[in-house]
Amino acid sequence: MSTYTVTRSALIPAPAKDVFPLVNSFREWTKWSPWESVDPTMSRTYSGPEAGVGAKYAWSGNRKAGSGTMEIVGAQELDSINIRLVFTKPFAAVNPTNFTFVPEGNGTRVTWTMNGENKGIGKVFALFMNMDKMVGGDFEKGLASLSSAAASHNA
């Protein structure tokens, strides 16, 4: 079985107290997620608590956006957030995702990591596509947007 990890890190010029809440609540993801603009008509539903463990988000969109769910399964205030990411379309996959927030200088080093397994159709797909290249660019865009969102959150 082949597994992969995609990870990107960025120094956000804001304290963790301003960055953490933007990731810990899926309602805040509209401000920075790199996938928000993929499908302007995408449907979103939120359930569970507003933020933290148990918060859930489901989306369903066009062919490019696909559909799936996310649930915060672990959170340590201002330190880390663990998310169970499940894609249902275009193909089924479970991708444990993690964010860490580490103070650095006057800002916060945010690291975004997603793990996955290539099996079934995903295994064939992996022969032609490099997940790190495919998703890594989105993570970089997302972290840049998170930086902007944290700056305006702090203003």
CATH class: Alpha Beta
Poorly predicted segments: none
Total beta strand runs: 7
Overall domain count: 1
- In spatial order, strands of the major sheet run 1-7-6-5-4-3-2
Explained architecture:
The protein is α+β, with helices and mostly antiparallel strands and 155 residues long. The chain has a single domain (2-154), classed as START domain (Alpha-D-Glucose-1,6-Bisphosphate, Chain A, domain 4, 2-Layer Sandwich). The chain has 3 helices and 7 strands. The chain has helices at residues 16-24, 121-128, 131-154; strands spanning 2-12, 43-47, 56-60, 67-76, 80-89, 93-104, 107-118. It has a 7-stranded antiparallel beta sheet. A hairpin with a 2-residue loop joins strand 6 (93-104) and strand 7. The longest helix is centred in the last third of the chain and has 24 residues, at 131-154.
Give a brief outline of the structure.
This protein is an alpha+beta fold and 155 residues long. Helices cover 26% and strands 42% of the residues.
Task: Give the helices and strands, then pairings.
Blueprint: E1 2-12, H1 16-24, E2 43-47, E3 56-60, E4 67-76, E5 80-89, E6 93-104, E7 107-118, H2 121-128, H3 131-154
Antiparallel strand pairs: 1-7, 2-3, 3-4, 4-5, 5-6, 6-7
Labels describing this entry:
7 strands; alpha+beta; globular; Alpha-D-Glucose-1,6-Bisphosphate, Chain A, domain 4; 3 helices; 155 residues
